[in-house]
Structure formats: structure tokens, C-alpha cells
From TrEMBL:
Signal peptide: none annotated. The chain crosses the membrane at residues 6-22. PANTHER family: CYP9F3-RELATED, CYTOCHROME P450. Its main location: endoplasmic reticulum. This is Cytochrome P450. One of its GO terms (molecular function) is iron ion binding. The keyword Transmembrane applies. Belongs to the cytochrome P450 family. GO terms for cellular component: endoplasmic reticulum membrane. May be involved in the metabolism of insect hormones and in the breakdown of synthetic insecticides. It is a peripheral membrane protein.
Length: 503
């Protein structure tokens, strides 16, 4: 047999083995007799064209029926896509003990910043969550409030230098908002003046862009890490660029060294982390702490607070302003609420004042409903789990993607889901809906720990802007929005342009 024939039969064998492998994998849901979306080789149910991940969820969610979930495939991996709100509540809340893991790709050895509370599982997650929860109480938010207001005032000055009275301007609002939230997080997490509002290319803004807009790996490598995490670790694949790791590790070390040498105390996130590093309590209780945080763990939590705090909050603010620009009657109602309540507080933005601005809060929640930053939540079964009132078993290790975007846009839950209507979140309307119908911050013990802080900075930013400016569509405003398929967070492609007029 010639060498050409050997190569030919070798290739035939390889192709045959791959075909048999996928055929066996793609029978997983059919063999179990559950409702599923038919996969297509080799991507499973992933779109063949380049698209945002929400489009994968939408393509599967349409198979929703009386069953609690739809079975799907990401390449060859079977995935559970829950469609029943009862089942979702079981996963996130009632049976959390069996779904406490996220099963995220984690490579601590090469990427110490990845070992933060969002990614870790098991006892390490429980320890971090328990110790960090007191950091985000309403009392701690009051301590940080004045710092956020100071940054918001500088934000107002920055825009005032561009938008002249009586002349409106067209601004790319998303980058401006990201600079605002970068300065907020820099001050509250690191106690550092980032100066992003003055310098768009400041170090924190530069590395903030690197986190989300300049990922170290492409979609193919990311799928490899998702499908075969052990192999990915052996290949030293990380989800964070080396220069980003070095910047944040060095910044945290230098900040801690300076504060400890000079006995600097501040009411910010870094101060609380330093207390945990030194074995001190941050909730004014004398409970014994199991162990101290290491410097790498401190850096990882500070990195999570920064990365999670500036991008999602600035994007949510951008969506709020976009919808207010398209819905001037809603914008005027919001502006009137701001004027009325500030007048009661001697025209000062206080912690108590923002709590009274309930319509602003409804606008934020409606933006989070229509444009959830995280289009899905992921969980992993710790043990075999029988879905209540069914014979279906979710096997140990099975990954579950809760389709937040699809739930938020389900017409059976929200009438006319594509319309922007803040009154959906009035107390009366909220009481009528199932609790799991809104997952803007997740739910259950692994919900967003920074929810109070995120809402506070979003409120302060929006109130400051709406009190001083009106927003309108401009010639560059994209209607309807197009999303950036390269971003995991739901992000408008090409920025967001709005017309801005000073009062």
C-alpha cells in the first residue's frame, strides 16, 4: 500500500471517529427523552455566523414548552437551558446547595486575578462571600456616598466644558460614562485618583479597556477552555492579559504598602480588604476568622470590584440615557422627580434624597430588564438532581445556563417586551410578577454582591446628568441598537452617540 493510500485511510479513520464521537454526544438529550433543540455538526446549537451569545439563547429558548428546560449543545457539550421560573427558583434559591457552583474556567497558577469570588467555588467561595458581604451593607454605602458624589461633580464639570448653553453637542456617551465609573471605582476600590475624566488614556482607563475590549484569547480558545478546562490549564490559557495582571498586582501591593507604612485609613473597599488580610473583622463583630486573605486574594477581589463595577454600571447608564433620549416624556418625568426631591433637600444630593427617587430606580430596573449586562447565569450541578414533579434527572457536573435575556424579553412575562416602560417596576406591578422574572442582579446566595454599590453609582450618575442636561437622538444615534458580538457583556457596537443640551 502506497504512502498516499495510508494517509487517505488515516484521514478517513479520523473523520469517522470524529463523526461517531459527535453522533454519540448529540444523542444525549434524545436518549433521556427530554425537550431539546436539534444540534448541527460541529457547533451544536451555536449560530454558524458570528453573533452575540444572546442569539444562541434565543434560538434555543423558542423551543420552550411545558417542560422545565430545553436541552441544547455548545459544540459537543450538552447544556440545560431552564425555561420554567419554578425550576430557575429551585436552582438559584430553594435547592442552591446542589447548584452553588458556577464551574467557571479558573487558572489560578497563571492568572491570580481570576481567583475572585465570581469564579471560585466550594469552601473558597463560601469563605470569601461570608467575609466580603459586610463590605456592601447600606451602612458602608453611606460611607462611600460622598466619594461618588465628588466624582459625579467632576463628571458634570467635564461635560460642561464640552456642552455650551444653547448650543447642543453630539457626544459618544458610553466612553464618558466608563470614565466616570472608572474614577468612581478607582476611588472606592483603591483610594486612587484615576483622573480618567481629565485624561481618557489614564492608566486605569487603559487597562479597563484591555479587560473587556482586548481579550487575550479569541472565541475558539475560549470555547476550548469551556469544553476542556484541564487541557486549557496545561496549555497555560488565561482569560486576562499578562500586562493587566501585572498592573493590578503591582497597584494593589503598592497601595497596601503605602497605607500600612503611613497608617492610612479610608472608608473604601481596599481598607476592608486590608483588614481581612490582617485577620481583622469588618462587620464590628468579634467572630473568629478562619484565616487571613493572601495578597493575591486581595488583588483578585479588588480586580473583580473594578472590572465588574465600571463596565456593567457604565453600560447600564448608557442604555438608560439612550431610552430616555428616545422617550422624552419619560425623561421629563424623571427630571421633574429629581427637581422636586432635590428641592426638599436644599438642592443637595444626599443619600436620603436618592432613596426617595423611586422613578429613577424604576428606569434603572427597566434598562436592566431590556438590556441585561449578563445575558445568562451559569450554574453546575454538584450532585444528581431530580427536578420536582418530573422523572428527569440533572446529572452531577451538568452545566446550566439560565437565559436571563430571554426571560426579560418573554411576552408571556412582560407585555410588549421591546417597549421601554419603567412603570413595569412600580411596587404594584412588581408584586404581581414571579420573583425570578427579573434577574438583573441574579438571585439567591450567589447574586451580585455589589448590587447596592452598583445602583448607588448609577443613580448618582443619572441624577447628576438629568439634573443638568437633556438627551436627544442625534444623527449618529443607531436605532435599533446593534450589539458587539465580541463582547460577553451586552454592549452596543461602535459606541453610543446622543445629542446633549445643557439646561
Amino acid at each position: 500500500m502506497g504512502s498516499l493510500s495510508i494517509v487517505f485511510w488515516f484521514l478517513i479513520s479520523i473523520v469517522s471517529l470524529i463523526y461517531i464521537y459527535f453522533k454519540k454526544k448529540y444523542s444525549y438529550w434524545k436518549d433521556r427523552g427530554v425537550n431539546y433543540a436539534e444540534p448541527i455538526f460541529p457547533m451544536g446549537n451555536l449560530p454558524s455566523r458570528k453573533a452575540h451569545f444572546k442569539d444562541f439563547l434565543i434560538s434555543v429558548y423558542k423551543y420552550k414548552n411545558e417542560n422545565p428546560f430545553v436541552g441544547a449543545y455548545i459544540i459537543a457539550k450538552p447544556i440545560v437551558i431552564p425555561t420554567s421560573l419554578d425550576f430557575i427558583q429551585n436552582i438559584l434559591v430553594k435547592d442552591f446547595s446542589n447548584f452553588h457552583e458556577r464551574g467557571a474556567y479558573l487558572n489560578e497558577e497563571d492568572d491570580p486575578l481570576a481567583a475572585h469570588m465570581f469564579s471560585v467555588d466550594g469552601e473558597k467561595w463560601k469563605f470569601l462571600r461570608t467575609k466580603l458581604s459586610p463590605t456592601f451593607t447600606s451602612g458602608k454605602m453611606k460611607f462611600m456616598f460622598s466619594t461618588v458624589v465628588d466624582v459625579a461633580n467632576r463628571f458634570n464639570d467635564t461635560i460642561a466644558n464640552v456642552v455650551k448653553p444653547g448650543l447642543g453637542s453630539e457626544l459618544e456617551i458610553r466612553d464618558l460614562l466608563a470614565r466616570f465609573t472608572t474614577d468612581v471605582i478607582g476611588s472606592c476600590a483603591f483610594g486612587i485618583e484615576c483622573n480618567s475624566l481629565k485624561d481618557p488614556n489614564s492608566a486605569f482607563r487603559y487597562y479597563g479597556r484591555k479587560i473587556f475590549e482586548d481579550a487575550p484569547i479569541g472565541a475558539g480558545t475560549l470555547l476550548l477552555a469551556f469544553q476542556y478546562p484541564d487541557l486549557a490549564k496545561k496549555l497555560h490559557i488565561t482569560l486576562t492579559r499578562k500586562e493587566v495582571i501585572n498592573f493590578f498586582m503591582n497597584t494593589v501591593r503598592e497601595t497596601i504598602d503605602y497605607r500600612e507604612k503611613n497608617n492610612v485609613k479610608r472608608n473604601d473597599f481596599m481598607n476592608f480588604l486590608i483588614q481581612l488580610k490582617n485577620g481583622e473583622s469588618i462587620d464590628d463583630e468579634s467572630a473568629n476568622q478562619m484565616r487571613k486573605l493572601t495578597i493575591k486574594e486581595v488583588a483578585a477581589q479588588a480586580f473583580l470590584f473594578f472590572a465588574g463595577g465600571f463596565e456593567t454600571s457604565s453600560t447600564t447608564m448608557a442604555y438608560c440615557l439612550y431610552e430616555l433620549a428616545l422617550n422624552p416624556e419619560i425623561q421629563e418625568k424623571a427630571r421633574q422627580e429629581i427637581r422636586d426631591i432635590l428641592a426638599k433637600h436644599e438642592d443637595k444630593l444626599t443619600y436620603e434624597a436618592i432613596q426617595e427617587m423611586t422613578y429613577i430606580d424604576q428606569i434603572i430596573n427597566e434598562a436592566l430588564r431590556k438590556y441585561p449586562p449578563a445575558v445568562f447565569l451559569i450554574r453546575k450541578a454538584a450532585q444528581d438532581y431530580q427536578i420536582p414533579n418530573t422523572k428527569t434527572i440533572i446529572e452531577k457536573g451538568q452545566e446550566i445556563m439560565i437565559p436571563v435575556y430571554c426571560i426579560h424579553h418573554d411576552p408571556e412575562i412582560y407585555m410588549n417586551p421591546e417597549s421601554f416602560d419603567p412603570t413595569r417596576f412600580s411596587p404594584e406591578q412588581t408584586r404581581k410578577r414571579y420573583p425570578m422574572s427579573f434577574l438583573g442582579f441574579g438571585d439567591g446566595p450567589r447574586n451580585c454582591i455589589g448590587m447596592r454599590f452598583a445602583k448607588m453609582q448609577i443613580r448618582i450618575g443619572l441624577i447628576t446628568l438629568l439634573h443638568n442636561y437633556r438627551f436627544k437622538p442625534s444623527s449618529k444615534t443607531v436605532i435599533p441598537l446593534i450589539y458587539d458580538s465580541d463582547m460577553t457583556i451586552l454592549t452596543p457596537r461602535g459606541g453610543m452617540y446622543l445629542g446633549v443640551e445643557k439646561n
